[in-house]
Amino acid sequence: MLNIRRNRMIGEKLPSDRISHVNTNRTRRCIPSTQPPTMRSATKITARSLSSVAAKLPAAGFPPPPQPPSYIDLSDTRRLFASVPTSALLRSLATLSAMASGPLVDLAAAALRSSVPKERRLLRAAVLTAARATVHRHFCAGEQVEDAARTVRAMWTDAGLRSILDYGMEDADDAAACDRNLAGFLRAVDMASSLPPTSTSVCVKMTALAPISLLERASDALRWEQQNPSFRPVAWRSHSFPVLCASSPLHLTPTEPNPLTETEENDLQLAARRLSAICQRCEQADIPLLIDAEYSSVQPAIDYLTYWAALKFNHGDRPTVYGTIQTYLRDSRERMMNAAEGAAAAGVSLGVKLVRGAYLSRETRLAAAMAAPSPLHGSIQETHRCFNDCASFMIERVSRGAAAVVVATHNLQSAQAAALKAQELGIGKEDERVKFAQLMGMANGLSYGLRNAGFQVSKYLPFGPVEQVIPYLLRRAEENRGLLSASAADRQLMRKELSRRLAVAIAGRN
User: Fold this and answer.
1) pTM of the prediction?
2) Residue 462 carries which DSSP code?
């Protein structure tokens, strides 16, 4: 039984060298600097010399100097792309431009989704080779953990950006696949622990650690409990963090589900143990763990397991475990606020990664098939407002302590609003409790602009063989031409910089 308040789970070991999760004075690794190498000189000037001068001014009878507003400047492409070779710019522009072509994307997606019969294996191999050289290279950090390590180091030393490392596995069918995935995630954590401190976080998907059918069954039980408070599915429902709320769409569970069987309860415990093993390894290595949100049919169970882990590991002012809120969902803000209240009542810190969402088409199709209202906001403007409101709420929680937020956005206005909110509340740019993030291969201009403004910025780096990360690549292909895309702005910035470099080259020859 998942009893998160009293006993550790049966069979779980407690290593003697493990850092205690009940130590509220837990300290982070002492290092000379937590800034990437490309940012250190600027940090030295502003954080030491200027702050010491400002501290002396009031004593001399002068008011402290006004703080300049945070400004994310994307106009100077020379400075923006200073760390990017021309060859890389050209390759990125070509890939994003090709993916902006609807017919080409549809053809490529169909080829990647199809199961090619034996006599057409050469065709399948050709499709995978083409994907490896284009979209996989653009959006992923490599196929093996060693490839990912090289990408992280290059991003840290050359571009001054952090990384969120994702072993690109999802949608496991059975316990054996889940155990194999667990081993891969643990290797990713071990690799991340060997990289420069603070350069890397790790991300996991619960559909890689628990069979999808099990997550669907558990989610059904949670949804029915929300509709009928007297319904008590099984004893595993043991903590006080709310998972759903009054505004949550419950059409996916129209009738009372059967209780989980004994086997299913045991499998749910195994899934929790897998997640706990990763959390424990991350805590020991002092590496944040971000748990991705997925599609609505399994999200309640994912949130349940995420909050179970948060109650177990998030003691202190900075969380180890972060959940993810997809703000294109109508109930996202209410669920996030309820989780914040639950965390405060339990005396643990709340870590949240905010995203707009990556399953737009899937959610829309499923709701339509069930003749139910869409669980998504009615317009992109509503999604933007919800994202900004959630970011503002979480940044306010950070200012009051025991919370942290990763503002994962490709939208300049949302990033600007979050940056100004943090400054307004006196949260320094070096504070690790407020970070920004964008996907590898997307919104690079915004990433560099935030970096140049002094903020902590990470790129989300999935890695794994092409066959493993096809679901992720298909979502990127869809998103690149969808309503939530920043690709057009990216392409415009890259064209501007390439034109500038061409003009400089021509002038130099003249």
Assistant:
1) 0.83
2) E
